[in-house]
Amino acid sequence: MIRLLLMLALICGFAAPARAEGPVLIELFASKNCRACPAAYKTLAAVEQEHGRKVLILTWPVDYWDYLGSKEKMALPESKDRQRGYVERFSLRGPYTPQTVFNGAEQTAGNKPAKVAAALEKVKTAEPADVHLKRTGKAVTLTGTSDGLVDIWWVTYLTGADNTTKMPNPVTSVQQIGPWLGGRADITLPDCTATCVLIVQEAGFGKVLAAMPVR
User: Taking the model in full, what pTM does it have?
Assistant: First the structure.
């Protein structure tokens, strides 16, 4: 049973900035039928090799290119929902692959190394958010401030030998643990069947305020 005890405090003040506590979260929207996606995989592999644990790459498989070939069996409804949220946030004409999103604050085509590097650098040099995660065993304490509603996400993904796809760290499940409005929240982590990450993100797929990988 997931236990989330929230002590909510409405905070007035500055807007939460882009840089999250923890690694920079790089989200890739991709499909096996996307011809430009292999180049994005190569680009992000180079980013991961250069920056190591300072970045966390997640691939969200989508199925809207299925008509071009075989079905994307790993596609999740949550992938489309999440990408639609980013389409609205960044005022895009529509979803596309390979799209990369950096801490929910910047986006660009994932197969363009120069643009990926520029977006990553912009996020890295932003002012830090006043949000902090502290883990003790299966418990995490979330503290800090927020200008508005924040979502807490629990995402499971495949990595290492468990990942038999060409996608970097494909997402296999996502769960919304609960809301947060600032203050302190004591979170009991759900079981992690593969590799997981706790993501604290402004509601409506806004800026990522904190990310904590859990193995």
Answer: 0.90
